[in-house]
Amino acid sequence: MSLQPCRPAPALILAHETPAHATQIEALLTRAFGPGRFSKVSERVREFADFAPELSFCALEAGQVVGVVRMWRVSVGDQPIVFLGPLAVEETERKHGLGAQLVEHACAAAQAAGEAAVALVGDVAFFARVGFAIAPDVSMPGPVDPKRVLARTFADVPLTGAVRAA
Ligand SMILES: CC(C)(COP(=O)(O)OP(=O)(O)OC[C@H]1O[C@@H](n2cnc3c(N)ncnc32)[C@H](O)[C@@H]1OP(=O)(O)O)[C@@H](O)C(=O)NCCC(=O)NCCS
pTM of the predicted model, to two decimals? Predict the structure, then answer.
């Protein structure tokens, strides 16, 4: 049996998104979430939240966007926090840890920036792996299963109240 030379896999880079990535990110989000994407309660949050590009990242492989995580500034009650989402990884790249890596990277950036907490709407089975737990006292601007409202705190702050504009 002869061994075939193979090309080294292109390195994965986590970088802040730029306007040049916008088209690829939109296409990835449409593939990942399908047509129901804009009916999610998280979209209602993003309508009033302030995008935080310095806390948001995309994963690039050979210049192609293969993952994205976006972060937004909001408040819960009077507490300023960060809202995470959308998070998506290209289907061919899943189950290699990239989703968790993107969340960790964005959370580390938020913590380094002095943010007290990150909240999101998602599956606890996935996000518990990266430090999130159900946030029972946080309410969303629309109907949602309360078991999907999650938070990860970096400080001992009360997370009680509605998610609203920062
Ligand atoms: C969720 C997502 C970002 C994970 O990306 P990823 O790169 O595969 O993540 P990781 O490799 O870090 O983790 C994969 C593990 O999470 C599990 N997982 C993925 N989505 C999950 C979910 N919704 N609920 C529970 N577990 C989930 C996978 O089965 C896998 O489990 P395993 O390690 O036991 O095989 C990716 O599946 C995706 O883009 N999904 C579509 C968009 C989406 O649902 N985004 C999250 C919205 S809140």
Answer: 0.95
